[in-house]
């Protein structure tokens, strides 16, 4: 790559004052380079500072920034106000970020939230470089889908939800646009790969429709015809735990032994008991259906492919947790 022209245009872009508006044109002019515009809001005075990262085909990256005359001096960049370290305030009680992270640390063994934070960062990194503008029609379609998914079927219900979550209309649009961008990215990542993935892994999406219950102590296996009566009596006398009785299970969501026994059981028979957290699980198999590549399964396959893509990026990412001991954070 000849750097002279691209660097000159990059300086013009950064010095325009609104580089985000000219970024698409810049990318169209230099399609051979991957570019990412990084914006940093300075906590000290509220000013916005931009830098442009340019990666050429050889993997080298150029970092370019531009500072206007009379802008915040370099020694003050990155200076934090005390309030920036606060995450939450409830009735005057302040929760610093460090305390929130410490709470997350306590549930480290149940690290789904930590994993989602890392995944969100990796997705946002990709969207910084590849996100496409959303048309007004596409934004409205995404907004309608967002509201339907949360049963916000009236304007009054939507306004109440926004008030309860302390979110403005602009923030709602940004949230919906981000959700739509993630969905578009997921489709791009999975494009052309669903059929091959399904041929290899489709069995994981087989469905078992079951009735189930978790018993406090290991139960005797009841007669299949009287299963629901047994569950009802056990719940009434406290020997069965509260929970959903009827469920749809996917083979890939169960451990191997449990999946094998449930999916090989003839409909109308009972599988188990299985030792689970807080008790023993009994399952009456009502129906077993092999997965077919319909719209629902295609969506699930796309999500599995996307999860694998995120995991690949995670394995090569530099992840830094700013709490805990080095050994623990480095292992994430």
Mean pLDDT equals 82
The total of helices stands at 12
> Which structural class is indicated by helix and strand composition?
alpha+beta
The fraction of residues in strands falls at 15-25%
Largest sheet: 4 strands, antiparallel
List the strand order in the largest sheet.
Answer: 7-6-9-8
Overall morphology: elongated
The residue fraction in helices comes out at 40-55%
Radius of gyration: 26 Å
Number of domains: 3
What's the order of the H and E elements?
HHEEEEEHHHHHHEHEHEEHH
Please provide the count of β strands.
Answer: 9
Distance between the termini: 37 Å
Low-confidence runs (pLDDT<50, min 5 residues)?
324-332
What would you note in describing this structure?
This is TIGR04500 family peptide maturation system protein. The protein is of the alpha+beta class and 332 residues long. It folds into three domains: 3-67; 84-195, no CATH class; 207-289, Chitinase A, domain 3. Helices cover 45% and strands 19% of the residues. The protein has twelve helices and nine strands. The chain has a four-stranded antiparallel β-sheet with strand order 7-6-9-8, sandwiched between helices. A three-stranded antiparallel β-sheet has the order 1-2-3, with helices on one face. The chain has a two-stranded antiparallel sheet with strand order 4-5. Helix 1 runs antiparallel to helix 2 (19-29), helix 4 (112-130) crosses helix 11 and helix 5 crosses helix 7 (169-190). The longest helix has 22 residues, at 169-190. Residues 324-332 have low confidence and may be disordered.
